[in-house]
Amino acid sequence: MVEIVNMKQLNRERIFELLSSRGSVDFTDYNDGVQMILDKVKLNGDKALIQFTKEFDKVNLEDVGLKVTEEEFERAYKSVDDEFISAIRVAIDNIKSYHMKQKQNSWFTSDDEDIILGQKIGPVGSAGIYVPGGTAPYPSSVLMNALPAIVAGVKRIVMVTPPSKEGSVNAGILVAAKEVGVTEIYKVGGAQAIAALAFGTQTVPKVDKIVGPGNIYVATAKRLVYGYVDIDMIAGPSEILILADETANPRFVAADMLSQAEHDELASSILITTSESLAEKVKAELEIQTALLERSEIAEKSLADYGKIIITDTMEQAIELSDEIAPEHLEVCVKNPFELLNKIKNAGAIFLGDYAPEPLGDYIAGPNHVLPTSGTAKFFSPLSVDDFTKKSSVIYYSKDALRRVKDAAMRLAEQEGLTAHKNSIKVRFE
Asked: Where are the alpha helices (DSSP H) in 352-398?
């Protein structure tokens, strides 16, 4: 079970040594195999998709069809209950409303009537969304990846997801997609799906940007196609860090730690607290609650390998430690959480108070759940409308305006030895 560590007994460096035990993936182990798949899809298109889907997923796309049909959407709606559809619609409203506030408009400025400067902002032309299949399909991933693109104004959104052994797509995923208006869906997964989106095939269109989580083969493929297309980020295992004082509810804290531990064995759940009493109570609660989980074995291994309860002398010390870890999800379970907000520098998403548990952000609150992991919250941000927009600088100078700066511009070009640059300006005044 999870270990309690007291910073009074271990120095800061030793704490980080314990926390950094989670090994990082060496993508070079997968590069060659994934590159082979990318090359074959690029060369052979649909034929390669059919071949790899038959090999990896045991599904013949020639029998079940590569593209999801309208009849499949209809069957999906019949196989889910009304409460699920209602919940999806609540989530859509909240997520869309939040992301609408992120939208930026083009702008122009003119301090001089002879000069106009600005920035033209518009959506990327097309986006591809990868949605994992397998034993744990995630309809919420559809919403979180599609809605920022829709708000940005992306005209064509293409979704890929691996088929089940029967050649179908999870009903919840199809309903979520249909509810947001994504109806171009292809039954293909893995590195071959990323290749199809990056290069295009006879059936699957090439897109400008690929987003969405996936396994190590999907992550490797995204890294390798970056440059042909844009990508969002390479997501690592799930993480939660909770800052708590003596007022925190140990049952709540334990439940929230387990909400991440159940994801997979590499998930990280950390509590940093100023209260030794809370630390002991949370450890006891973790043992009680883990035993009740359907995925208890996964949660137990995650907590044993990558879970920690750390006791600090002060909350300032706790925040400093949290900022170094830069967690994907940060919960602040203290008496006055807003007092700490401005002191926190690095976190993917910040949840304030006892009644803002992390799963609220996964599904319904509105902010995006596609977040930076593995310490990258120090320099990455959550998926947003910005990820689906591109910006062009706008410059207008009149002849008189250019005359006023021509000598300075020509001097800089001369300094760099670029005589054609200098002449481009000079010829306009000869």
From this structure: 358-363
Domain locations in the chain as residue ranges: 3-24+238-366, 28-231, 398-429
Tokens 């409303």 label which residue?
97
How is domain 28-231 classified at the CATH fold level?
Rossmann fold (3.40.50)
Q: Is 99 annotated as a binding residue?
A: no
215 is in an annotated binding site: yes
Task: Determine the Cα–Cα distance for residues 335 and 338; give it in Å rounded to an integer.
Answer: 9
pLDDT given for residue 21 in this prediction = 63
Helix (H, G, I), strand (E, B) or coil at 93: helix
Q: Is 329 annotated as a binding residue?
A: yes
User: Is 192 assigned to a binding site?
Assistant: yes
| Residue pLDDT, tens place only, 201-250 | 999 999 999 999 988 999 999 999 999 999 998 888 899 999 999 999 99
**CA 370 vs CA 17, 142, 212: distances in Å:** 27, 11, 8
In CATH, what is the architecture of 3-24+238-366? Answer: 3-Layer(aba) Sandwich (3.40)
- Measured torsion, CA atoms of residues 413, 414, 419, 421, in degrees rounded to the nearest 10: 10
- Angle ∠(86,264,273) on CA atoms, nearest 5: 90
Catalytic residues: 328-329
